[in-house]
Write a structure and sequence with these properties.
Layout lengths: L10 H14 L3 H12 L5 H10 L27 E7 L6 E7 L5 E7 L4 H15 L7 E4 L19 H8 L3 E4 L9 H13 L6 H9 L14 H5 L1
Parallel strand pairs: 1-4, 4-5
Antiparallel strand pairs: 1-2, 2-3
Length: 234
């Protein structure tokens, strides 16, 4: 065996790792910062990862080891742009729609439904308006070409019209269509759906899950200060 000898197993260290993972549900790299800031102890992320693997709380993901071919963009100010999309759970058939703020990563509105359609999508828009319009209206909304948005009916010039589009224009929200075959445009909310898929089962209600997500540190924010989407938004 070559290299430095491994540190002996520490039950207290393991207890901290499990406790931090239970609260935040992060992987090893982010838990390293969480543990350092919250518990005032440094545990290397490789050591954290090995312990999570041994407990079945982590997995090796080859896609995360590959270099990305695109550069992430983000807005500077909250409510300058949002992302809206739908996700269907394959196990129980629940459909979830959400609006994510681009700058802060906060979930602004959303819900679980039986059907993906224009009516339910407009309900999520109305929820957004009810919560935030007196504070600051959303300027732009990024979406894909889904039928629920009516964006699949574009003409030769790439223009389109639909009941949903007229509904958001009523609130002076500018619709922005994602590029075709470029899912990274809406990648932030796709990442949130991944989090939803993994951890929604741990919470009694959709609202409690969203509250947990909005109030836990986010890796794309000021993670060294454990900044949450809720804090970044305000």
């Amino acid at each position: 065996n070559i290299g430095r000898p491994k540190n002996p197993y520490d039950p207290k260290e393991a207890e901290i790792i499990i406790e931090a993972h239970k609260q935040y549900k992060f992987g090893a790299r982010m838990l390293e910062t969480i543990i350092r800031e919250s518990y005032n102890i440094h545990i290397p992320h490789n050591r954290i990862h090995m312990h999570l693997l041994s407990q079945g709380l982590a997995r090796e993901e080859e896609r995360k080891k590959k270099k990305r071919k695109w550069v992430r963009y983000e807005r500077e100010h909250s409510m300058s742009a949002g992302h809206i999309d739908w996700h269907e759970e394959s196990k129980d058939g629940i459909k979830v729609c959400a609006i994510l703020d681009d700058a802060s990563r906060k979930i602004l509105a959303g819900g679980e439904f039986e059907n993906i359609n224009t009516e339910n999508t407009m309900k999520v828009i109305d929820q957004l308006v009810e919560r935030y319009w007196l504070i600051c209206p959303l300027r732009e909304l990024i979406m894909d070409h889904g039928a629920e948005f009516g964006a699949h009916r574009r003409d030769e010039k790439g223009e389109w019209d639909s009941e949903f589009k007229q509904h958001i224009l009523k609130y002076e929200i500018k619709p922005i269509l994602a590029r075709v075959n470029h899912p990274q445009t809406n990648g932030k909310i796709e990442k949130w759906f991944h989090t939803y898929q993994r951890f929604r089962k741990d919470f009694p209600s959709f609202e409690e899950f969203v509250d947990w997500y909005n109030n836990r540190p986010h890796g794309s924010l000021n993670f060294n200060k454990l900044e949450t989407p809720e804090q970044a938004f305000w």
